[in-house]
Amino acid sequence: MKKMLLTACLAALFSMTAFADDQPGLKADKAPPPPHKMDDGYRGMEDARTMTIQQAKALHDGASVSLRGNLVEREGKDVYLFRDKTDQIQLDIPMAVFDGKSISPDELVGVTGSLDKKQQPVRVRVTHFQKQ
Fold this sequence. Notes:
This protein is an alpha/beta fold. It has one domain: CATH 2.40.50.200. It is 17% helix and 32% strand. The radius of gyration is 19 Å and the shape is elongated.
């Protein structure tokens, strides 16, 4: 009886890892919505300081920005293309910021970080990432 209980516990323990995501980050299996169809709507996150990419690009180097939109594609190791209704911008998102979350291009996300105008093209160095 003890062996059967031990075997069942071990099987349950090892089967849980099968349900975990293999690779966190952007899953490019779905297409993002077209820019004219990107509506915020209520998604459970209230942030009065959210701005558009066009507004963010007009700010000074090092400015704190908070954006909502879609991760469209991965362009490098930690570099992603981000798009909202007004424009697109590159984001620098380390894997640690994803915190094990997987995102597809059709999901609305919120990002917070600092604007880096020294990079060409302009980038946002993301410090906080939230699925909407």
